[in-house]
Fold these 2 entries.
Entry 1:
Amino acid sequence: MNHYFTNNENLKSEIRYINYNIENVSLTFASDNGVFSKNEIDYGSDFLVKTFLKNSHIKKGNFLDLGCGYGFIGLTLKKLLNINITLSDVNKRAVHLAKMNSKSNNLESNIYLSDGFANINDTFDVIITNPPIRVGKEILLKLLNESLTHLKDNGELWFVMRKDQGVKSIMNILEEKHKCDIVDKSKGFYIIKCYQGYKLTESEKYAII
Ligand SMILES: C[S@@+](CC[C@H](N)C(=O)[O-])C[C@H]1O[C@@H](n2cnc3c(N)ncnc32)[C@H](O)[C@@H]1O
C-alpha cells in the first residue's frame, strides 16, 4: 500500500494547481499524485498557518517546515514574514514540488530531501509542522522530540493534530521534558506550541504551595 510519504517513482504524474489567498497576497502551488492533500490545502495546515500568524511572538529568524509536502506552510510563511525558511520531506515528489513552488512564487528557500533530521544540521527559532500521523506513534514522537532538540534557545515547535489522532496523549509525552500549550482548537484540530522549559516535579509543586 502506498502512503503519501512513500516514494513511488512509477506513480503517474498529473500536476494540478492550487491557488491560495491570504492577507492580500496570492500563492499558487503545483501539486501531484502521491503527495498529501493533493487537491486542496489541508484544513489543519491552513488553521496552523493562520493560528501561528495570529498568536506567535516569533516572526523572524530561521524557520523549518518539517514534512513540507508541496510547501504550503513554509512558503506561505516565507511570503508573509521576513524569515529564512528551510523545508524538508522524505517524499521525493513532495521535495520536487516544493522546489518548483518556491521558484514559481519567487521565494528564496532551502529545500532538502531528508528522513526526519538525517540531512538537517541547523537549529531553528521555529519548527512548524503538520506531522505525518500514518507513520505511527513511535516515528511521530521521534520527529517531534528531534524537532525540540533542533530549536535555538527560546525557539518553539508548532504543530497541528486532531483530537481523534491522540493529540492529548502525544502532548502528555512531550510534556515530560518540555512545556506545551494548546494555542487554539477548531473542528477537532488542535494547534500545539511546545518549547524548552523546566517542568516542576510533584514535590516541587507542593513546596511552592
Ligand atoms: C500531513 S503531511 C503535511 C504536508 C504539508 N506540510 C502540508 O501541510 O500540506 C506530512 C508530511 O510529512 C512527510 N513525512 C513523513 N515521514 C517523514 C519523515 N520521516 N521525515 C520527513 N518528512 C516526513 C510526508 O511525506 C508528508 O509530506
Entry 2:
Amino acid sequence: MSQLLEFTDRGIYCPRADCYIDPKRGAERAIITHAHSDHARRGSKYYLAHALTVPVLHHRLGKKISTQAVEYGEEIIINGVRFSLHPAGHVVGSSQVRVEYAGQVWVVTGDYKLEHDPLAGSFDPIKCDVFCTESTFGLPVYRWADSAGVIRDINEWWRKNKQNGITSVLFGYSLGKAQRLLYSIDTSIGPVYVHPAIEQINALFRQHNIPIPEVNTLSETTPYQKLKTALVIIPPNAMKNGWLDHVAELSTAYASGWMATQGISWVRNADTGFVMSDHADWDGLNEAVWLSGSDTVYVTHGFTGQFSRWLCENGYDARPVDM
Ligand SMILES: [Zn+2]
C-alpha cells in the first residue's frame, strides 16, 4: 500500500490526490509552501498557495500561471484527501501543508521559524501522525539570540556609520529578510533605500495591507550625497551590478543565520554580519517536532542526516530525506 505522501526525485508526492508539494519540476498540481525559488518552480499546470503567496508566484513565475489562493485553515479536498495550509512564520504567506486521509494526518512544514515574526505571523503547531520538517539549521551550533537585540545592533551599526559619513549596506533576501528588516529597524536614524527587486515585493504586500514602511527605491542614478547617511538594503547578489560603485565609503553587513558559523567570510566584501534567520534554529526544530506530537519524522532540506540521527537517539522513528 502506498503512503499518504511519498518522497520522490520530483518532490513530495501524494499519490491518491496526484499532486506534489513544492515540486522540483513541473507537475499537474502543485501545492506551494512559499515563493522562495527552491520551493516555487516553473512548469506546473496549477498552483495552490496561500493568498499572500499567490501574488509573489505571479510576480516570479509569470502572470499566466494558473493559481488558486486559499486562506489559512481553508480545506481543499482532492479525491478524498483533505489539504489545508497553516502559518509557518517563515516569510509573509509561508505555509505548512496539512494532509489528511482516512484518519491519518501528515504535516509538511516547508521552511519555518518559531520566533514570532510581526509580518509573517507565528508558526502554528499542528498535531499529526507523521511530521516532515526542514532542517536547514539542524545542528546544535545554530541557536539564535532574540531578534530584538540583533535589530538594536543593526541600528547601532547604522548610527555609527552615519556619524562617520559612511553608507550602510545591508544584504537581505528580497522576499522575507528585507521586509522583516524594514519593519523592525529604526527608520528615524536616516534615509532608507531598497533595491527595486525588494520594492517590487514590498509593493505587492502593501496592496494586501501588510504594514511595510514606505522607503526610497535605489536606482543606478541615485546620487552619492543622498546615500551618504543612508541604510541601503539589497539582495546578496545585487552588489555586483555596480550601482554602489560611486559610493566613496561604505560598510557592508549580512543578516543571516549562517553568520553563526561561517562569519563574514561567507559573503565576499561584507565587513560584518548579524545572526538573524527566518528558519528555526536547533531549539526551534526540536520544539516543533515535540509540538507535532508525532513519533514519525521525515527530515528534509539541510542537515538531514545529523538531525534525524539525533531524533532517533531520542526515541523518534526519524528518517533523512534527500530528494
Ligand atoms: Zn524559504
